[in-house]
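Objective 1.3, modelling of assemblies. Example input:
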Amino acid sequence: MALLEVKEVAFAYEGHRTIFKDVSFSIDKGDLFTILGPNGCGKSTLLNCLARIRPLSHGQIMLQGKDMSRMSAHQVAQKIAYLPQSIYFSYGYSVREFVVMGRTPHLGMFSRPRKPDYKLVDETIAMMNLSHLANKSVNQISGGELQLVCIARAIVQQPEIILFDEPTSALDYGNQLRALRLIKNLADKDYAVIMTTHNPDHPILLGGIAGVLSRSGYMETGSVEQILQQERLSELYGTRLQIVYVNEISRVACLPESL
Amino acid sequence: MNSTSVIESKTPRHQRPLAGVLLLLCLAVFILSIAALCLGRYYVSYEQVVRILGSYVFPVDPTWTQTMHNVVMNLRLPRILAAILVGGALALSGATYQGMFENPLVSPDILGVSSGACVGAAAAILLGLGNTEIQLFAFCGGITAVSMALAIPTLMRSKSTIALVLSGVIISGFMMALLGLMKYIADTETELADMVYWQLGSIAKVTYENLFATAPIMILTGLVLLAMRWRINILSLGEEQARTLGVNLRFERGVAITCSTLLTACAVCLSGTVGWIGLIMPHIARMIVGSDNVRLLPTATLMSAGFLILIDTVARTLTGGELPLGILTGFIGAPFFAWILIKQRGAI
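Predicted structure (tokens):
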């Protein structure tokens, strides 16, 4: 029994075109799954369906053998953490106050986090080297720092699966690479990680498995080596791309032929 | 923990000890209450006030006149209790609404409670009904307005908070038109004056009967909101975040909206519409204890209770007559709000 099994799912907005269809894959502990596709192909929508923010039009998602559509938001959140592309704060919570919100799925409606919850929060903040930010307002830290803080909140949630929606989109180049390293570390720590990106170099750097979601709404899945083919990517992005082996860094890279 | 950051300059607001802040506020509310019992056109010394109050608990030899007793127990005490209830209720529901709607500019009558209550009260005045009926009509008017405001997004098949805020604007606008019509047909000598006075807010006519009728609902709904105050933090992150953190959004938001609406409706039917308090008190509290609703809600509630005692005492001692509360809270609230926004700049 896989940790998460996605069976022939489809999604369409009521009375509108289908966003994706026939998407199937399964992942287990420690797997790193990258969903690759151009802007507007429905990567985020697919991820939203996995987080149960949107209902499926067709198909089934099994979480540890249980049909996810029959589980409560509470039960799902105990297993799946979701990090949105951007997060907006109306109020200046401190980083510590924000990270403890990851405990929500483990607390009832009328309860509040107690000492053990705060202990876990402080340990996680220390582990991620964020102690200097703990008392800063979430509105006053940089985008890169906020990303780390969100990851800390996801860890505090103690899920088995972490979903990242375009985790690199708001970051500069150095922070993008740091974020990817962190995501890889999470997979090494046995979390199952699913992320979306439009950059073909990300799955190459991360390894693991990748799904390529095309504009027509179909997704092909396989190991990164197998799925990242020059022709497929060129067609996906509508431009000539080359997958070349670069001696200096001993790996392949995806490069455009020209503008 | 973290002693380094504390030393920096002063303690960050979200680290100030909550128990200490609340204790100070309780003390302030108590002192203001005693002062308000003393002050007025008929001055009663503070020793006498304490003795009169104490005589209900301990055997105390009466050193006061019947008039003093009457003024303290039957005229001033119900007003002070009403000020505590109304002030606390408006700030508590205001802070809850601000969290729920992810918007610090929201006040507790955003869904049309106040305008609906005004229409209800005006209708009762037009029908020539008494004080109790006016309050009952006001309560029903407020609840009806909010129910209508909640129904529109359902018809639109929208679950977003923006749709809810917009439908609140629509309902308030409609209720104001209704109120205008009633004022237009009202007898200018008697009925119109009553309507205007009611609309400006006052707790001069509050009796123990009114208090006993509304206090249980207010205390119960207030306690529910206080019990779920950490949850309001999660709801304030927005619908998507709350849902992926495992919140049963429909139910929990429903409970919070129901409780804060009942709370506001009760407050409005006790006092008429007292503006600004529900909007600014949470802001001031946020400046003292930070944004965490665990700390914010009790702080704002106590602060607002004390503030309304103060305002009401000023309203009845400043001039010979009774100044409506809404006028004072407006004069103080609006400039104060501007000051808060200027001071906080990017921080909200």
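The domain at 16-338 of chain B is CATH 1.10.3470.10 (ABC transporter involved in vitamin B12 uptake, BtuC).
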